[in-house]
Amino acid sequence: MALRAVIFDYGKVLSALPDAESHSNLVAATGLDDARFEDHYWAHRHAYDSGALTSVTYWEKIAAEAGFEMTAARLQTLIENDCRMWGNVNQPMVDWTQRLLEVGLRVGVLSNMGDATRDYLLKENPWLARLDHLTWSCELLMAKPDPAIYAYTLEKLQVNAEDAIFIDDIPRNIAAARALGIDGILFTDVAQLRLDLAARGLEGKIPFPVQG
Fold first, then answer.
1. What's the Rg (C-alpha) of the chain?
2. What is the rounded distance in angstroms from the CA atom of residue 175 to the CA atom of residue 181?
3. 3-state SS class at 180
4. Half-sphere exposure of 43 (CA within 13 A, CB side)
5. Tell me, what's the pLDDT at 1?
6. Rounded to whole angstroms, what are the CA distances from 14 to 174, 189, 200?
7. Assessment of whether the complete model's pTM goes beyond 0.90
8. Dist CA 87 CA 42 (whole Å)
């Protein structure tokens, strides 16, 4: 393939696993048990990511459906810990984005992300500003696996589908990319990613991520 661009999901690809302490703080702030918290947390997450809900209305909706009182202090705790939960970076992958830029490849992010989390990540991660393009779902009022958000990202990176690799940890997002002709790689860890890149004949042609 004539690789020109690598597009990254953020959560659990460029970020490490969710921060355990922040997750515990979220559960404690709601007063729910772990199972009920997870059910409510994910029930409207796609609506939050796609901009149908803001960080405020997302948590207010959870409070109304789960049956706990929402106060200003509780809302602030929930938003802050939700942002921090996704803030730990996967350093080998972040380092790889910079090495890809150095060899002239286009590098972008295509992430389902709500408004508050996006703002927090941009503030805490100055390396994001060095990438060629950032697609945040909340800004477009659409989210993966909607084909339009992939097409938008390709347009902004000025590359064709067949010239790009997309890396994500969710199978349905990879399937959507492949349906558009983008080579999708399902991310599990750096070791497997190196094998997947080698299987595409890219060893020696582009830098590979370095295992931590």
1. 18
2. 10
3. coil
4. 15
5. 64
6. 16, 11, 21
7. yes
8. 18
| Residue 54 burial (CB count, 10 A) | 15
pLDDT at 100: 98
Q: Which two tokens stand for residue 29?
A: 């702030």
Mean pLDDT, all residues of the chain = 97
Q: Mean of the pLDDT values across residues 192-211? A: 97
Q: How confident is the model at residue 4 (pLDDT cuts 50, 70, 90)?
A: very high
In angstroms, the CA 64 to CA 46 distance is 18
Look at the block and give the residue holding tokens 């890149």.
197
The proportion of the chain whose per-residue pLDDT surpasses 70, expressed as a percent, equals 100
Instruction: Please report, for the chain, the start and end positions of each structural domain, with discontinuous segments joined by +.
Output: 5-16+88-199, 20-85
Start-to-end C-alpha separation, the chain: 28
Contacts of 104 (CB under 8 A, 6+ apart): none
Using CA atoms, how far apart are residues 48 and 166, in angstroms rounded to an integer?
23
Q: For 122-146, give the DSSP string.
A: HHH-GGGGGSSEEEEHHHHT--TT-
CATH topology assigned to domain 5-16+88-199: Rossmann fold (3.40.50)
Spatial CA neighbour of 174 closest among 189, 163, 186, 192: 186
- Alpha helices, DSSP H, located in the chain: 20-30, 34-43, 45-49, 55-66, 72-85, 91-102, 115-124, 137-140, 147-157, 171-179, 190-199
Structure-token pair, residue 58? 């997302």
